[in-house]
Amino acid sequence: MSENGAGRAPRDTTALDLRSGATVDPPTSPRLPVHATAAIDRGAVPPPRTLAEPEPPAPRTVEAHLDEILAAVPQPEPIELAVLDAQGLLCAEDVVSARALPAFDQAAVDGYAARAEDVAGATPDAPVELAVVGETVAGAAVPTALAPGLTQRVATGAMLPTGADVVVPGVWTDGGMVRVQVHAGVEPGSWVRRAGDDVSPGTSAVTVGTPIGPAQISLLAAVGRDRVQVRPRPRVAVLSAGTELVDITTQPAPGQVVDVNTYALAAAARDAGAAAYRWGILPTERRRLTEVLESQLLRSDLVLIAGTFSADGDMVQEVLAELGPMRFRQVTMHPGPLQGFGRLGRDDVPVICVPGEPVAALVSFEVFVRPAIRSMLGKRQLFRRTVQAISAERLLSPLGYRQYLHGQVMRHPDGGYVVEPLGGGDEALLARMARANCLIVVDEDVTEVAEGGLVTVMPLLLGG
């Protein structure tokens, strides 16, 4: 992504470097003022080290952490579902039709079945007149034949009489019941659906990897399939960790906060296509905590935990480590640089830990969890589509960290997009996030985007 574009002010590198906690001030660059969009997560700044302490591991890039997750998430085995229950999933089999669609030659429009040679050359000024011999409607019918110079009234979907090779739409006639005047000639085969035109026996009606929507359900029903093999929705358990948390039905005491993460993350997982369920707040008693985590590993394809995890570890991190290789790392992103991932339990179930701060939790979901769920669903498009937009304001970003800012993106009257970052120091973060329709992504090596500069924008479309 370009910084500010040609002709704009050069990137100002006076910014906080979150990897070292120090400021970087080139002699020729003025110091930038503090800006709301350049706020940092103080948990990302390591404490001072003594000479005897080992060098802390370098932060991981967003791509490295995401690649580890995507490489580890399982591909659930296909299951068979009723066609209506398969809606929104990917087909996991080639559905071969044993039937021809349509099963017989039929009329594609209400009108008159005829021979093309009998109506050739008909015009409004010189209509062709034919005798009408009967009428056929959609439904069970005895096959009939049509002699030259005759026509038969037919309804849409009705069986075509033998010998007829066109259907003249009723609006192109005078609508006669005994004799009819045809006001326009039609080419052979016009307004006729031939047997097998849509699907012929032995050919695939729906192929592997096709998303099953209303049209595919219609086709499956037409070829006689009431059940189909699909890639199932991954089962995602959503939990929160923190002694300060209370459920939404409880009035929080001073120092306590409502657990919004299990609700928000479960909703986000469902929007991504998962069968998500929220367990709630993890217990603080160690034995009970272990039991809960073990039970969720047994019933889930992926476990998602939001919590205020520390670099020094806590009881939740200790119990997770007892269940398998679990690692917490600094990731070069903001908000929420501390991320955790491991494969735990007897089935090596992926466990993703995201920050407990609600905005950071949902940003982390977009970056890491949503692509994982879509991978488990077998989707080809794992990531939301991005667009380039003009920033309506100057943006500041911490050096070396990829910044994700909530914003509102809209079409510019002259074409393209313009995005306005949301929020300020006096605005609640949850209210800001609820008003946003996109994330503004500022790359690691960009510390400033001038007003009018181009930025990458990720629209947050429901189900997108």
From TrEMBL:
UniProt keyword annotations, A-Z: Magnesium, Metal-binding, Molybdenum, Molybdenum cofactor biosynthesis, Transferase
Molecular-function GO term, any one: molybdopterin molybdotransferase activity
Pfam families: MoCF_biosynth, MoeA_C, MoeA_N
Signal peptide: none
CDD domains hit by this protein: MoeA
Top-level class of the enzyme under EC nomenclature: transferase
Pathway: Cofactor biosynthesis; molybdopterin biosynthesis
Biased composition regions of type Pro residues, renumbered to the chain: 45-58
UniProt GO cellular component terms: cytosol
InterPro entries: MoaB/Mog-like_dom_sf, MoaB/Mog_dom, MoeA-like, MoeA_C_domain_IV, MoeA_C_domain_IV_sf, MoeA_linker/N, MoeA_linker/N_sf
E.C. code: 2.10.1.1
GO biological process: Mo-molybdopterin cofactor biosynthetic process
UniProt superkingdom: Bacteria
Cofactor(s) annotated in UniProt: Mg(2+)
Ranges for domain MoaB/Mog: 237-375
Stretches the record annotates as Disordered: 1-58
NCBIfam families, A to Z: Glp_gephyrin
Main function: Catalyzes the insertion of molybdate into adenylated molybdopterin with the concomitant release of AMP.
Similarity section: Belongs to the MoeA family.
Listed name of the protein: Molybdopterin molybdenumtransferase
Source organism: Geodermatophilus nigrescens
